[in-house]
Queue: 4 jobs
Job 1
Amino acid sequence: MKETRLKKILDKLSETSGFITSTELANHFNLSKKTISRDIRELNTLLNKNGAKINAKPSLGNKFEVTDSKLFEEFIRTEWYKHAFEHDDRNNPQYRREYILSELLINKVYVKAEDFMDQLVISRSTFNMDLTRAKDFLTKFQLEIKSRPHYGLYVEGEETNFRKAILKLLNHSLADQQTEGVMEDIKGVLYSEIKKHNYVTTLYSLNDLVSHVYVSVLRINKGLELRSDHTSFDKSIANSSEFHVAVAIAQRLERHLSISMNMNEKLNLTMLLISRITPLNSHDAYIIPNNINDLLERIVAAIDEEFNISLQNDLDFRISLGLHLKNMGNRLKYNLILKNPILEQVKSDILPFQIATFISSLIGCEFTTEITEDEIGYIALHINSALIKKDKLKKKKDILIVCATGKSTAILLKNKFENEFLAYINTLQTLDALELERIDLTKFDLIATTVKLNITTNVPIIEISTFLSGNDVESIRNRLKSKEEINYLKTFFSKDLFFVHPEGQTATEILDYLSGEIANKFAVSKQHYFEELMKREALSSTAFDNLIAIPHPLNKVVDDSFVAVALLREPIKWGQKMVSIVLLMNVDPTKGNKSDFLYQTITDLLSDRLKISFVQKAQSYDDFVSKLV
């Protein structure tokens, strides 16, 4: 097992009876003082509970001391191993795959199969399965695992593709004990030089830059620099202002990390900067090129035609998306990867992500390349902002909270209401029960009260607990939805497209089964419908983290709106996730103006684990609908 950094620091401190400064520790472990200080605080918190401490004095440094020998000895004997070593899970196929990839991509040139089997303590057959998974991963980057007699396995491919593959793995198995410190140093250099040269960037873009540069440093340290035959750089970028920033960054990295960056490395860094930093107070930075303006026209027209949502006159949307597409064009031009750290959260907003996926084909045609799921997620953020601005989803309500236990409770309830129902609220007022007589209740759409009210009014009243329980939240949400909306929602679901435990053990089999049922109901080609579903899955998996998949055809096949439901007997693998509820959505926005309410209902379901468990157990159509709405 690998030793953790905490163990290495404690071992170093234990070697001497005197003080060691943080600077000495930082130099010894090749880490920043900030990282060492944080580790010492973490270590001290652990030791203080277990009979020891690190005595830190600003003028002297850090000294290890035992305060209770019996307690400390017991801790070392029974608990310390949990903190002293990295604990891998060799029974986990994902871990084994990443271990194989990291050894081949980073740590060694050749590795024998027998060595992998010994290190992972697995059989030949298990290793062969893990190797197949590793090969599948590398195929996405045009890399290939090959075997050389007497030497072992190795990876063959272009250097630029090696770096892309390593970048993909960076947040998993490749982070060793010194990674964090090196990345912090890189981040400091990048931020300092970007700011010095009067550029700005976002935190996400800065962190993404750090990852890219870190991978470059790893490869340079292995003697694997970018060469002219590795790259197809547009040499004109050497005349760009970003190139001067890249040169300044390279010079500092060379001094700080004892490396040498050739011209190709500097050009590569320039390309990374071009799509991630913006000149401060530069007029050119906010000019949208004609080709992007033309693309925006096609995008808003397509959204209007396909989803019946007009964004033609939303200038903020056109400017924000236009500037994003301008920078995105630079990334695509230079084949650069931009990770989206909030992709899963973005995907849970179904309608924006569905629209973004739909228009990604238009964008891909403009830039003659396929748009990644990470990039689609960024586009969805702009669409989501536009939809929120249009306020399409709900007619907002005026709500009165009646409380009899004082102002503090009223404030607490008001805060909880705002957290749970903000999207439904127009105005929210709190009132003591004794003051009801002096207020006009007819101006409210709903009264929520913690005490029984002896009043006569046409306004709906709902009694709630003082601390707003889960049942209260569900009851209020149902009251806030109009009867018209609920009845309309039910029209999307039908008994003949509701299936409990349908046949199929894979995502493909389930989609094939549902395609057949839909084809029978609407008299369309099963094969055509199935192909459109698979085209959409090829863009990005429609599975979510909470056992739900929401597939839909990429292009319209059926001129109708419906949701086909499949509740599976056991969870099945759907992309990289497990799924037990399938909601196949086929929505034609031109057939009604409340399909957005359907999207909101499904989005609410995705974030409600309790409701998911209820829906999952439904045994009939009526049971399912009642639990959903």
Note: The first strand starts at residue 52 and ends at 57.
Job 2
Amino acid sequence: ARRLVLDIDDGLFVLNRHKFEVLCGLCDHVIAGSELLAARVQPINSHVTVIPTCVDVEKFRVPSSEFRGADTRNSELGTRNFILGWTGTAANIEYLEALREPVKQLAREFPIELRVIAESDGPLRRLGFDRDGIQTRFVRWSEATEIADLQAFDIGLMPMPDTDWTRYKCGLKILQYMAAGVPAVASPVGVNSEIIHHGVNGWLATTPDEWLFVLRQLLSDPSRCETVASFARKTVEERYSVQAQLPRLIACLEAVSVGQ
């Protein structure tokens, strides 16, 4: 008989609890992208394995800091802008609203650019950061240029409210930043606090004042980013890469196929 395996990396139960429970109950095995998700599956189906969301590190070439962001120059200062970057679906661009005041203040102190990669710029235009004196640039997401676009960031941003939905997300955004050799600053929501060890392979910030403090430190001393970026890349290689987790996935599927 064929075996049915369900892979989840979002809190689908938030959208439809009954459907989630039925699906999990029907499956021979469930692969969860985090311990938090696995804990929700366990009472319904005890056959659950945690395999974290991963990225293919072989696709990412870590660029030299000399070239990062070199396409954006500040004409007054004669130096390149420091790029604070965000990537994701357009619907989540609204999360950047939480950074309006910190970034607005930083724009008065440093030559920075807020760069957003998404499939549509509508939500970014509605936020109107440029009206607050924040230099903003939208880059349309493309599979062909995604990695190069990410590697142009100096710092990757992941602000996120703590809700029933976001709490079960699996951190793909920060894993992409880290694999690209881009240090991340993220809200300590869900697995973000597991992936990032504050000050070692990235930074965590909750309040606007914390975001301002961390980003100001990094803008004042960019060399700190380079050290953390190397630890970030190593974290992904060792735990959150396709290369590290593929053997576990294969072993899991093989065990399921023989009814274990």
Note: The chain has eleven helices and eleven strands.
Job 3
Amino acid sequence: MSRLPLPTRKLPAEVRLGRSGVHGYGMFARDFIPQGARIIEYFGERITKAESRRREAGQLALRAAGGEGCFYIFALNQRHDLDGSMAWNSARRINHSCAPSCESLNLRGRIWIAALRDLTAGEELTFDYGFDYADWPKHPCRCGAEGCVGFIVTAGQRWRVRKEIKKDAGRRTKSGGGRSPP
């Protein structure tokens, strides 16, 4: 891995923001980025788990009322999370993908986004948000990657979502209702 960059809230020269086919805006490689490079720090407010749950509930209510309801919260440890919803946190523009180009690293309580593989100029930076299985129906996925189940859930639990969707499809066939991916 490359050396840890100095903390900054500026957008690194290696990336740019732009319209994304995944969701609204995204972050893109301006130039070649080598595998393992730490690209950008994910900044935010350090909050307790209780405050994190409160903020998530507020965003879910906003989404249910027809608003955007975006989530920018990273788990730091057993007691604290990082809320990156601040406008000056450019890393919040990195979208989820079930076939990510990057990963998140928790290094001494700081979140960094690093390249999982070599990235070419113009390629969108994405990482797997890894949401818990218990919350999968709350988080639709629009990444379009091969193997995407239509919901943002940690990679190791996608088989369970597939099973639930298959089970719901059977119910829908019998009753005319059920849950389906967006």
Note: Helices lie at 49-64, 158-175.
Job 4
Amino acid sequence: MTDQETAPVDGVEQATAGQVATEVVAAPRDEAGQSNSGGADPAGSTPPAVPVASDDPTRWGRVDEAGKVYVKAEGGEREVGSWQAGEPAEGLAHFARRFDDMRTEVELLEARLRSGAGDPKQALTSAKHVRDGLVNAAVVGDLAALSARVDFVIASAEKAVDKAKVAREAARAESAARKQTLVEEAETLANESTQWKAAGDRLRAILDEWKTIRGVDRKTDEQLWRRFSKARDAFNRRRGAHFADLDRQRASAKTRKQELVDEAEQLSTSDDWGVTAGRYKELMVEWKAAGRAPKESDDALWQAFRAAQDKFFARRSAAFDERDAEFGQNAKLKEELLAEAESIDPSAGLEAARSALYKLQERWDQIGKVPRERVRELEGRLRAVEEKVRGAVDAQWRRTDPEAEARVAQFRERVNQFEAQAAKARSAGDKRRAEQAEAQAAQWREWLAAAEQAVATR
């Protein structure tokens, strides 16, 4: 070979036409064995066919008597090298194989584009490199068909680059939208949430998710990150202020509850059962209103508070048990008095009955209290005796009431007066006055009859 020979493109694997046949389906030929070299159709889906040059190198070039190798080109032919080492056919086959290597290189680029395994941008660069080198390539083959195939690969690569760009932009927009959503959630938590633990856990989860999102442009990413960081800082400040305030409240609650414990312990020795029990109820209300102290202190204060209460109510219970025993004995004594009281008979002597009842009432008061559940029963029986005696006294009073007798005499006198006036008016011939006097006499006569009946039925 001479210096005019050119090596295959750097960085691209060389292979024979037979090797390519196992990786890429060779482009079809027409019936005449010619390549479909009418030019690349970037918009089409079928790549232009490129014949295998090594099958018949003489179709695409020649070797002259001086050993110079030529390839058919547009408008004629051009020299691609020299072959002096052997038969001319061997030289022509050598340059045809080099063409097939370039053909294989192009088909490999195309295969990678179709499979999506390669980088479209790198494939585009490689295809352009092949196209640029094809002008002076030291090869023998269908240069027009290979050029059309390279143009097809370039067009496909450009489409793939554009598609990848659109996909990257879509992915970038989606990633930015995801981060925007996370930022908005973080800002909502920072400004509104009072569920401190849950919100803090969620902010940490948002940060972990944030780290997995890629592809956002630097400017947008920095803006969103600043908002997210600001939201986290705001949440941490609110949470810190809340717990600082909570600590102050708990310290205040501890002080207040200690005061309540002190008062409860002082009251635990009181014998003023009713007032003290009422105060303990008030202390319980105040205890609940005081709020929670730090847990360890709160538990200890509560135990001390309950111990003071228990001490008082245990003492009260013992005192009530003793009192109940005394009240039970009082009930028996009052039952004995009631037996005497219920035997009083006012009809046998009203003054004696009143005197006996008065003495029983004095003894009743001296006995003292009885169990609460017996009060109504015993008081009711005594009240019945009192009403019996009082009823007898009232009946006697009504029978001897001087006012009732005087009222009867007064009514009778008025009747007589109006009857006399009526008689006098008739004698004088004054019929109208006579009728008026008779009407008034009739009215007073009715009242007189009612008064006389009341006196008679006493």
Note: The mean pLDDT is 84.
